[in-house]
Structure formats: C-alpha cells, structure tokens
Amino acid sequence: MPPAYRVSHLAALEAESIFVMREVVAELERPVLLFSGGKDSIVMLRLAEKAFAPARIPFPVMHVDTGHNFPEVLTYRDRRVAELGLHLVVASVPEALESGLVVEPSDGTRNRIQTPVLLDAVEKYRFDALFGGARRDEEKARAKERVFSFRDEFGQWDPKNQRPELWSLYNGRHHSGESIRVFPLSNWTELDVWHYIAQERLDLPSIYYAHERTVISRDGMLYAVNEFIAPRGAEQPFTAKVRYRTVGDASCTAAVESAADTVEKVIDEVAATRITERGATRGDDRVSEAAMEDRKREGYF
C-alpha cells in the first residue's frame, strides 16, 4: 500500500496564499502590493514570485512612506525591488505635508496621516486591489476582517457589512472608485511567518535580529533614540540588546529585549511569547481599545 500523501502546515498556508494572489490577478485589473520592507511583506513577495513564476510579478509594489524610517529597512526595500525588477510606487507623507493634503500631528507620529496619503495614491493610480500583509493573529480588528475586504469609494471599511467568504470563494466585484484590500497571510501566525522565512532562507533587514542600540523606556516599551525620538524629562538613554518584532513608523515602533540573533533563535523566542508583536511594540495601537478598528474604518491598511 503506498504511503499516504500529506501536505505540511506551511505548504497548505503557502498554497492558500498563492491561490488568493492568482485569484486577484484573474478578477481585478490594477492590483498593487504594499511593501514596506517588513517581514510580512517580504514573505508576500516570495509568495508572489512563486505564484507567477517563471513570469515576472505582474503588479507594482507601493510603500506609504511616513519619512520616519529605519535606514536598514529603506536600504533593504530598494535592494529587493531592484533584484526583482519591480516598479516601486512611493506614496510620500512628507510630500503630502508640503502640498497641504495632510497636517503634521501634534504628537509627531505620522501613522494616522498615512491613510489620506494611501487613499490619494489609490485614486491617482486607479488601483482596485491592494495586497496587505495583515494577519488575524495580530490584532482584534484584523481578526474579524475578510481575506477580500471591500472598501467603498472613500476607502472606508464597514466591519458590520462584510461579504461572506465560503470555502475558497472570493468576491472581488466592485464599482468604479471602490477597491478591495486583500490579505493573503490572514490565516498565518507570527510563528508561521518565521518558519517560512527559515524554510525559504529569506533575507531580512538586520533590525529583526538582536543587536545593541541606544534606547529609552517609555510607557513600558523600549524606543530607539534617533532623530524622531528624544528623551523627555527624567528619561535616561541606555544601551540594550534588542530586536524589532515589527517594522513601522520609527517614531512609534518599539523594540524588545532579545538575544535572538539567528532565525532559529527568533523562532524559539516567538514560540514562547504570549503577546502579539503589535501589542508589544506599537505605541499607535495604544491610543484606545479600538485604535486599529477606527483607523481601518477610515481607510488604513
């Protein structure tokens, strides 16, 4: 009797994500992949490579650039885009500030004003599908969002009026001006992402691994001292061995203490943690209990 054929957990997730990407290209006209140089968007790029090989990836990538970046991540972004021969669209928050499209927030954090900049780029380039790297395990608002997430002509999401998704049937129908946010990694966890990074031997920005950095402790989180964050009052800078679990706006993304300087050590660390990367490191999610949902209603990723 021949041995039973079994598909591994990672292989099943990969196949599902590739199916989603192919479905988008088949159903919609002008997709784009949101690429920040973070681990989830790096995994999405690898999935896109596999989905359409041996052809080139049939859509551009877009970075909504707040101007508050980690240099290591920008360097990686540009190098990876060049390696794959992709067209990079940069939706620039600094340019939007200069043009008057948005106003600089009083707290100095630009995550909130990414939304109108993103929506302006969607309208300008007429994108009707945006691949995002959000996962359901990250945050409760993302946990209830569909793989194909419909957005109205204003880019807004209504969590009480979502389309049903039965089995692998996805509905990409929309009117002109409307769009679909697509999340191929919805059913992945942070641990799945790291196992896939190990399996595919994916290169990542160095800040994902343990390194020494000058930080301050603020609101129970460790923020790097840089041009966007300076000590306040009694805060004292100190050197710590840290790594970043997620990459975002440098003014509101914190590091975690860690000695994990290899993929294998990171996997062991993530397997033992009991708090999501956004809950542990994103100051912008702590504004209120519904901070993420409020932003997504307005058109955020």
UniProtKB/TrEMBL annotation:
Domain Phosphoadenosine phosphosulphate reductase: 31-254
InterPro entries for the chain: PAPS_reduct_dom, Rossmann-like_a/b/a_fold, SO4_adenylTrfase_ssu, Sulfate_adenylyltrnsfr_sub2
Region described as Disordered: 281-301
Any one GO BP annotation for this protein: sulfate assimilation
Keyword annotations: ATP-binding, Nucleotide-binding, Nucleotidyltransferase, Transferase
UniProt cross-references to Pfam families, sorted A to Z: PAPS_reduct (PF01507)
Enzyme Commission number(s) of this protein: 2.7.7.4
GO molecular function: ATP binding; sulfate adenylyltransferase (ATP) activity
PANTHER family recorded: SULFATE ADENYLYLTRANSFERASE SUBUNIT 2
Family: Belongs to the PAPS reductase family. CysD subfamily.
Name this polypeptide is given: Sulfate adenylyltransferase subunit 2
Species in which this protein is naturally found: Asanoa ishikariensis
